[in-house]
Amino acid sequence: MNLKILIESTPSLLALGQNYPAIAAAINEKPMVDNSSEQDTIPKPLLWQDLLALVPITEKANFLDLGSFQAWAKAIILDAETSENTLLALDSVLTVMAGETGQDVLGAAKYLAELGDRNNLKNLASVCVSQGLLSVETAAAIQTEIDTTILDPGYQLQVLGQSLAEQNDLGVVTEFDVQNALN
């Protein structure tokens, strides 16, 4: 549709008379419209205190005398009985933990949670189960918490729609375009 026809067929634009800047502004204005996309889910933010709350006190006690994360990991690696899956999981965690010295095992888990490293938190939980530090049930609860999603809080119920100019392939309309179209 050309600009003249658009203006003449839109009562709100005609009502603006010869106010060319106001007509151009009205044609270029982007109205708010209902968002047509569905609200997505996102991973629930990882909070260390939420994860730690899932570990019963009797299992927390298992972590008290382990010493540093590095020494604990080294002992697991050197143990001939350690399964290949445990070694792979631990290797992934160690890659992320490189350079993070002085941490104990819980400190390593907290570090991973703060990084938002969901996969390696699961890997660490798996290693802890294989070493008898966590029960299978506790590890499952931790993994469920890690996998929990929430509705995207950044979702907008309304978004900018198309202006009359965009709807009619007119580009950006200036007051001079309006004046030329009407004269």
- Name the shape in a single word: rod-shaped
User: What is the β-strand count?
Assistant: 4
- Helix amount: 55-70%
Share of residues in strands: 5-15%
Low-confidence stretches: none
How much is the radius of gyration in Å? 30 Å
Overall pLDDT confidence:
92
What does this structure look like?
The protein is mainly alpha-helical. The protein has helices at residues 3-8, 11-14, 20-28, 48-53, 57-60, 69-78, 84-97, 105-115, 118-130, 136-147, 164-167, 175-182, and strands spanning 32-34, 41-43, 149-151, 158-160. It contains twelve helices and four strands; from the N terminus they run αααββαααααααββαα. The strands form two sheets. It has a two-stranded antiparallel sheet. A two-stranded antiparallel ribbon has the order 2-3. Helix 3 crosses helix 12 (175-182) and helix 9 (118-130) runs antiparallel to helix 10. The longest helix has 14 residues, at 84-97.
